[in-house]
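Customer escalation, tier 2.

The customer says the design service returned an amino acid string that "doesn't look like it belongs to this structure." They asked us to rerun it and document both sides in this ticket. The original C-alpha cells are below, unchanged.
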C-alpha cells in the first residue's frame, strides 16, 4: 500500500459556504488518514494543477446557483478538457459536494453534473453513506437532505456559522469516507 494518500479538494465559493465545507471535508479526510490539499479553482497556478493531477483522489465542490454548479467551477471543468483526452485523472477516486440556500435548491442537478464530469475523466465516483433522521433517529442533523450521490448542505441563516452543526458533522464524515475509500482503492 502507498504510504501517503493525497486528496485534492477543488472548490469555488461565492459567499464562503463552499470554502467552509471544503475545510470541514479536509478535516475529515485528515482524520481518515489522508493528506488533503484545498484548491480554490478561481486561483490555480501551474503548480496547483500539478498537485491536482498528482492526487490520488479529487473532491469537487461548488455552490449550486440557478440549478447548476457556479460558473467559476464550470470554468475549471472546461479547463480540464486538455487532461481528458489522455485520461490523466482516470481511475482516481472522485466525489462531490454542493451547498445552496434552500434544502432542495436543485442541488441534485449539481451533483449529477459533477459525477458525469468525473465519469468523463474515467474516475471512480464515491457517494454519501450516512443515514440520518428520520430513518436513524439517533442521527438528527446528519445527511438532512438524504442525498446519496454526494454531499449536499444548506447554507446557514446564521452567517457567522455559514454551515449548521449537522451539516458540518456530515461534511467531516464525508471527508473521512473519501479518505478511507481512496486508501482501499490504492491497495
Amino acid at each position: 500500500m502507498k504510504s501517503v494518500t493525497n486528496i485534492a479538494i477543488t472548490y469555488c465559493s461565492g459567499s464562503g459556504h463552499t470554502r467552509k465545507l471544503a475545510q470541514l471535508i479536509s478535516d475529515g479526510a485528515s482524520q481518515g488518514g489522508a493528506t488533503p490539499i484545498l484548491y480554490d479553482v478561481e486561483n490555480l497556478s501551474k503548480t496547483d494543477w500539478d498537485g491536482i493531477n498528482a492526487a490520488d483522489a479529487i473532491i469537487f465542490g461548488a455552490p449550486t446557483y440557478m440549478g447548476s454548479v457556479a460558473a467559476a467551477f464550470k470554468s475549471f471543468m472546461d479547463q480540464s478538457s486538455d487532461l481528458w483526452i489522455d485520461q490523466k485523472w482516470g481511475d482516481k477516486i472522485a466525489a462531490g459536494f454542493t451547498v445552496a440556500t434552500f434544502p432542495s435548491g436543485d442541488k441534485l442537478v449539481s451533483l449529477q453534473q459533477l459525477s458525469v464530469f468525473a465519469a468523463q475523466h474515467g474516475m471512480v465516483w464515491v457517494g454519501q453513506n450516512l443515514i440520518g433522521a428520520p430513518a436513524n433517529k439517533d442521527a438528527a442533523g446528519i445527511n438532512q437532505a438524504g442525498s446519496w450521490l454526494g454531499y449536499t448542505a444548506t447554507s446557514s441563516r446564521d452567517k457567522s456559522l455559514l454551515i449548521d452543526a449537522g451539516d458540518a458533522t456530515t461534511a467531516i464524515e464525508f471527508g473521512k469516507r473519501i479518505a478511507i475509500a481512496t486508501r482501499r482503492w490504492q491497495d
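Tier 2 assessment: The sequence is consistent with the input. The chain has a mean pLDDT of 94. The helical segments are 17-31, 46-54, 71-79, 81-84, 107-120, 165-186. Sent an explanation to the customer and offered a walkthrough call.
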